Amino acid sequence: MTNIQTAETAGNDAFRSIDAATGLATGEAFAVHGADDVATACAAADAAFDAYRATDNAARADFLERIGEEIVALGDTLIVTAMRESGLPRARLEGERGRTVGQLKLFAGVVRRGGWMGVRIDPALPDRAPLPRPDLRLRMIPLGPVAVFGASNFPLAFSTAGGDTASALAAGCPVVVKGHPAHPATGAMVAGAIEAAVAACGLPKGVFSHLVGPGNDLGSTLVQDPRIAAVGFTGSRAGGLALVKLAQARDVPIPVYAEMSSINPVVLLPEALKARGAALGTAFVGSLTMGAGQFCTNPGLVLAIEGDGLDAFVAAAATALPDAPAATMLTGGIHAAYQKGVEALAGHDAVKTIAQGKVGEGVAQGQAAFFETTAAQFLSDAALGHEVFGASSLLVRCADENELHAVLRAAEGQLTATIQMDAGDAGMASRLIPLLERKAGRILANGWPTGVEVAHAMVHGGPFPATSDGRTTSVGSLAIDRFLRPVSYQNLLPELLPACVRDDTDAPRLIDGVVAG
Length: 517
Ligand code: NAP
Known about the structure:
Keywords: Oxidoreductase. This is NADP-dependent aldehyde dehydrogenase. GO terms for molecular function: oxidoreductase activity, acting on the aldehyde or oxo group of donors, NAD or NADP as acceptor. Residues 14-462 form the Aldehyde dehydrogenase domain. InterPro entries: Ald_DH/histidinol_DH (IPR016161), Ald_DH_C (IPR016163), Ald_DH_N (IPR016162), Aldehyde_DH_dom (IPR015590), Aldehyde_DH_Superfamily (IPR050740), ALDH_KGSADH (IPR044151). The chain folds into two domains: 32-260 and 470-484, Aldehyde Dehydrogenase, Chain A, domain 1 (3-Layer(aba) Sandwich), CATH 3.40.605; 265-445, Aldehyde Dehydrogenase, Chain A, domain 2 (3-Layer(aba) Sandwich), CATH 3.40.309. By secondary structure, it is of the alpha/beta class. The chain is globular, with a radius of gyration of 25 Å. It has 15 helices and 22 strands. Helix content is 39%, strand content 20%. The site of NADP nicotinamide-adenine-dinucleotide phosphate (NAP) has 27 residues, from helix 8, helix 9 and helix 12. Residues 149, 151-153, 178, 180-181, 214-216, 219-220, 234-236, 239, 242-243, 259-262, 296, 334, 337, 387, 389 line the site of NADP nicotinamide-adenine-dinucleotide phosphate.
């Protein structure tokens, strides 16, 4: 479906790649896909589904790895294009490319090992009294074609061939990507790499399609297409909720796995503050300002109990932040939303500005900001707990442990919660953890939430509004489960059973609930 045209040939319906640093259109323009293209892509995905899901684990793993190889083969042009469209620096995008390829490899390994099939066998018990038990065999199967909305803030690792696409393809689901309008040229290059891998692996073309165009209609039409069986999304709360609503209103409602909004509380416990308040303040500024703060795991909320250690933390942050350079934000729209959020905090009667970063020259320059308020004020205004996407954070000063808990109880669902602690804080930390478990998908100690390891035990998810479905993750190998459902086979003749649930299967399996082998 990729349809790259030049500015000259694309005509009035074209939309253009924008240089994030200048806000100006580059020479590249892209034909806008419409409802007909959505229908064509979904029909192709539906037609490809049975053949694709029938591929064996080795073939599907090879395909995932081939996508990675095709992405690497795009060379430096991909990096330069993504730098231009996102404003993100080279090192970050090279790292993102590595992560993109790494997560494709991770899923290839998961697929090869076969545990994803979730095989369970409860053999028949014909002599059981008072009733015999039937022969029951279970495996997971893919849901069907998946619509993926690429994220603006990870043009490689969470976009066209990013985590959602990799996990859906690993599950055996064809994918239709709705490319993010902030990086159409990057998206088109990566889509080309996936299409090359589809061809090289002899798979049906409909296994992957890429649709581009500005405006909500394209994505809305895609989510409403009856052939789409699930949706993966990363972006704004408003956008994610709009898609959830559309998906629920369909004749056949479907799951939407939307990652939306999180302010990632960081709790600074007293002993840690006493021992290293100033060092924590400096390190916090590093985490806050990384990537212009455009991370879903950015530390947007800091909580601490009043004391000397907290004062040292604030003083160090107030010293470091004014040296933090402004950075080009991903799009003019994201910058405008950031400015609005920062201005609302700066103008709030109950909020004091601790420090701000350097003012930038040029368009869409995000200036970092750190604010403070009291627990009582935070508890009286829910808006203080809303995400300001970018390098902005709010410190909430608490009088005691009870207030700290009250603030956390009032906070919305989060992707992460961080505890900075020393040995003497262990009691307080252990009282916090049950509360944090109810609020966040990942709890971390003595680190910063930015930086998400792609691994088997990672959870990048959490209660609403961090995501629309806190039972899952969008990063790490568990993400494959979002696109699978169980089927149980009762008393089927062996020759009718899928190979992975037959007696001679070598798939990882439970027999009578016990790990076999
Ligand atoms: P966005 O506006 O939600 O857009 C994400 C994707 O969804 C785009 O492809 C967009 O394309 C589509 N979309 C948005 N609203 C839609 C609707 N009502 N119906 C159908 N499709 C829709 O997010 P963004 O542009 O990436 O960033 C905007 C804001 O999102 C940021 O300022 C930030 O607040 C938040 N954000 C959060 C995270 C996070 O991980 N927490 C990450 C990135 C961004 P069209 O606009 O072309 O329809």
